[in-house]
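[recover] target loaded
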């Protein structure tokens, strides 16, 4: 076992620590809890934080980083452009910089491909522009590329992009996304997307790598799974360590969230998995009923996720149970 956290070199030459702390608290905000979580995480050895304008806690993440006394250049900081801000990339980026109270951001992601309309709702959530309506994600990406000229962001990337939407985006890119942050764990290993992204030198970042174990809407749990539990017990570690190590060992960046100090330490204590151990987790999704989202079951409303249909998102429909 090792507490050493390897970094991955991105397609723009920068390095990203393979494990980071997720800062989504389940609902926007989190105030003091987020500040304390990040400060404790830095003490536990974390040097990579994943937040977003939409998480409503950039201020607390930024304050914890500043108050930790760790030099800024030893911390890797990711934040994300909100869906309401696709038409105002520069302004939204400046707001994030101000909230985080930092000179620069290491990684700025387009949180979702769909742009939200300022007002209104529709079936399946808030009102959004359709894929071919302006601002399209291609237009938004071109504005994100311009941010690189200002020197206040080191890398840019995307999140929740499928092969379908990357195929639309990439021909327009002057700078390819450095990472694509997507739901990824053994129930949703994203094998096709991973192979596609690797062929374009885009590293996947795995969000919800533990499968959001506290979610009440989730019929499948990685923590209650006998195969995963048996592997963890054989290796004398806990289930989360096995899941996080699997993600890092297959060269994806992994960003579990925890407020619990003990779990903070165990989550960054990686374990070396043998090829046989890796295969057990690689094959888990082949078990009956195990290949599915663990984040969005109750959130796919009228076939839509955050306003776009699963087809528009390019997400395989059979992996997402639609709320009736
Ligand atoms: N780009 C996107 O659209 C997107 C979407 C979702 C998430 N994300 C990012 O990915 C991060 C991680 O995903 P997530 O927060 O959705 O889910 P997750 O990391 O899979 O799960 C977090 C949950 O697991 C619990 N947990 C953490 N370590 C544990 C352990 N060792 N044993 C048992 N339970 C443990 C946490 O509770 P405690 O805090 O009580 O330990 C929390 O309830 C987010 O925080 C966010 O930064 C991005």
């Amino acid at each position: 076992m090792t507490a050493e956290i390897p970094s991955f070199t991105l397609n723009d030459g920068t390095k990203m620590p393979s494990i980071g702390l997720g800062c989504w608290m389940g609902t926007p905000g989190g105030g003091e809890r987020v500040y304390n979580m990040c400060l404790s995480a830095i003490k536990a050895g974390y040097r990579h934080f994943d937040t977003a304008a939409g998480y409503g806690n950039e201020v607390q993440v930024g304050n914890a980083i500043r108050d930790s006394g760790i030099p800024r250049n030893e911390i890797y900081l990711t934040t994300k452009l909100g869906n309401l801000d696709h038409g105002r990339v520069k302004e939204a980026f400046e707001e994030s910089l101000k909230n985080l109270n930092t000179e620069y951001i290491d990684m700025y992601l387009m949180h979702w491909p769909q742009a939200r309309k300022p007002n209104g709702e529709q079936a399946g959530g808030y009102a959004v522009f359709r894929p071919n309506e302006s601002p399209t994600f291609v237009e938004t990406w071109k504005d994100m590329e311009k941010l690189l000229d200002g020197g206040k962001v080191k890398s840019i990337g995307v999140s929740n992009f499928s092969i379908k939407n990357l195929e639309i985006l990439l021909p327009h890119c002057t700078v390819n996304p450095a990472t694509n942050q997507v739901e990824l764990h053994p129930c949703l290993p994203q094998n096709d997307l991973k192979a596609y992204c690797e062929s374009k030198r885009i590293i996947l970042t795995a969000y919800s790598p533990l499968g959001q174990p506290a979610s009440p809407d989730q019929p499948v749990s990685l923590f209650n799974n006998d195969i995963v539990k048996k592997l963890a017990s054989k290796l004398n570690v806990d289930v989360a360590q096995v899941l996080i190590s699997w993600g890092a060992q297959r060269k994806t960046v992994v960003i579990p969230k925890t407020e619990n100090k003990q779990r903070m330490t165990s989550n960054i204590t990686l374990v070396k998995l043998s090829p046989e151990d890796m295969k057990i987790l690689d094959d888990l999704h082949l078990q009956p009923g195990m290949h599915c989202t663990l984040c969005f079951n109750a959130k796919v409303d009228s076939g839509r996720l955050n306003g776009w249909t699963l087809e528009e998102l390019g997400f395989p429909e059979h992996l997402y149970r639609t709320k009736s």
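[recover] notes: The pocket of NAP is lined by residues 22-24, 50, 111, 159-160, 181, 207-214, 238, 240, 255-260, 263, 266-267 (CB under 6 Å).
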